[in-house]
User: Fold this.
Amino acid sequence: MILRIDQTSNEPLYLQIRNQVVAAIARGELLAGDGLPSVRRLASDLGINLHTVNKAYAVLRDEGYLVMRGRSGAYVADEALAASAERRGRAEAALAETLQSLALEYKARGGSAQGFAELAARAAAEAFADPGIAGARRNVGVLGVDAEG
Assistant:
């Protein structure tokens, strides 16, 4: 997995990191137990402040994607073991809230409920048709980074 940071994007850097790690987990590029680079190493490799990486890792931890093992670092969480019913419920509620917000934006731009549902269904079909999500084996041992900007 290569992380790409776009310094010109309006999206905060920590969210760029968070979103790319989540996508890599979804695609199977990162599996439960895989280690991520230390905060200092990733910040240095990307040329960004270590507090930015720390914030991204903290968000990923709070959302249940990562577990922190003291001085050993950050590892991809095993969802089956790490997520309690309460945490899964909170995550599902947060996703529902995000979908509601997107639906309201779509409606404000003149879209219909059916149009939004069709758009969401296409996006879901595309995400779940991704070979990595469908179960293709990956061949990565180390998280690589690449800064754009």
